[in-house]
Amino acid sequence: MIFFYRLFFIPLFLLSAPFYLRRKLRRDKNIRQWPQYLGFFPKISHTAKDRTKKRIWVQAVSVGEVLAIEPLIRQLHASADVEIILTTTTSTGYKEAKKRYSDISSGIGLFPMDFWLCSALAWSRIQPDVVILAESELWPEHLHQASKKSVPVFLINARLSDRSYARLKRFHFIARYFIETIETIYCATQIDYDRFSDLGAIPEERIGNIKLDVDFGPALSLEDKCAQLQTMGFERNNDSTENPFTLTGASTWPGEETLLLNAQKYCLDAGIPCELILVPRHVERREAIQKLLNEQPLSWSSANGDSGNLPINNDSNQAIFFSDTTGNLVHLLKLADLAFIGKSMPPNDGGQTPIEAVAQGIPILFGPNMSNFKTISGELLEVGAARCISSQSELNEQVLRLAKDSQTRGQMKEAGLNWHEANKGIIADIGNAILQTLKLS
Question: How far does Cα 360 stand from its chain's mean position?
Fold first, then answer.
């Protein structure tokens, strides 16, 4: 199969190159790092095959995966006989990885293009003893290189979306190729376990989402919360009974900012002070969101210092904060009274992870399209930590109802925290299995 993949890669890449390069230029203007996509991974010390430490190559796609693997990275690093090489696919993930792991990794770079020469060059530079792939990083050339060199592959937090599962079922021989090159699969949910099993895999019986083991830090005190909201332009005092209600849009996609602005207006018209924090999934949508904010009457500011619709006098306070920088979602969720989970309202599909909000005790709302987190969203609805809405009117009513009802929000918070605590622990099992494979435990 790898022969046909290599044969068709070049014409397919040439056809998609204009779109690919345009997207790269929009998201990653630092072209000095681009050679890494061609396999020119930065020089690593101790690249000789007789090095004493075992080398683990971890691939995490973007910021979310880079954050999620932190407990595993630190567990593996605690072994004196291991060194970590970390790659990411996106520039934002790369920046976050450099910030978090520079002190405990032997190399951080960008994942190579999955073309024969690029992948082979990166492999010759990294020379891993074990490969870890987070979620759905199934690249044929990368897996072939691992198989050819007899390097064990761990697929962790393995997920198969409805679309991916349907495609692999249709082309079962492709699924078989992927599965045969992966030594160990840890599935995120029971649904994913059943799907991988149906495709011929034998996943580990231990199931769990690695993002549940991420430490998001302690909740903010009322004073700290007020102080940070003030630095963002909101007016606050230390009497929580008089402060406005804070609604946060977490990882929003096109159309969802409008829904949240309308829900905010609905609350304000009902006499409920409501402030809105918008955290889009992709900050390159900055201009479109700024245009949207300028078309509505409420005052707003952004993380980059921009502002709009500011009143001539100070009779009106800022109502909206737009986070147009990356990596702030976890922190901004600490300021929320209620969060809406993005990519869940039509025409968007799949949903963003609700874990970051729930793990910090934030009640959540999401739309009907949460297929990427079907099990988790279903469990959160069942325990009462979340509510599902399907229209603008339902969103308006739920936001207004919960803004008025702190007791219900408190019950949702406790339900979410209890669910989170009951489902943690998968990382320790994965880390121990990797070290056993390397004969280090």
Answer: 16
Q: How far apart are CA 152 and CA 128, in angstroms?
A: 9
The first and second tokens of residue 334, run together, are 């600490």
Contact call for residues 151 and 427 (beta carbons, < 8 A): no
Query: What counts of helices (H) and strands (E) characterise the chain?
Result: 18, 14
Alpha-carbon distance 258 to 264, whole Å?
A: 10
Query: What does each of the 441 residues of the chain score in pLDDT, given as a tens digit?
Result: 788 888 888 888 777 767 766 766 666 666 677 889 899 998 786 554 556 899 999 999 988 899 999 999 999 999 879 999 999 998 889 999 999 999 999 999 999 999 999 999 999 999 999 999 998 778 999 999 999 999 999 999 999 988 889 999 998 888 888 888 999 999 999 999 999 999 999 999 999 999 999 999 999 998 999 999 999 999 887 665 578 999 999 999 999 999 999 999 999 999 999 999 999 999 889 999 999 999 999 999 999 888 888 654 444 579 999 999 888 999 999 999 999 999 999 999 999 999 999 999 999 999 999 999 999 999 999 999 999 999 999 999 999 999 999 999 999 999 999 999 999 999 999 999 999 999 875
Contacts of 253 (CB under 8 A, 6+ apart): 280, 281, 342, 343, 348
> At residue 115, what are phi and psi to the nearest 5 degrees?
-105, 145
In sequence order, the β-bridge partners of residue 153 are 131
- What residue type is 179 in one-letter code? I
Q: For residue 340, what are the β-bridge partners?
A: 249, 365
Taken as a whole, the chain contains a residue count of: 441
> How far is the C-alpha of 54 from the C-alpha of 76, rounded, in Å?
11
pTM: 0.86
Annotate 282-314 with DSSP letters as a single string: -GGGHHHHHHHHHTSSS-EEETTS-EES--SSS
Position 12, amino acid: L
Beta-strand runs (E) in 141-199:
153-158, 184-187
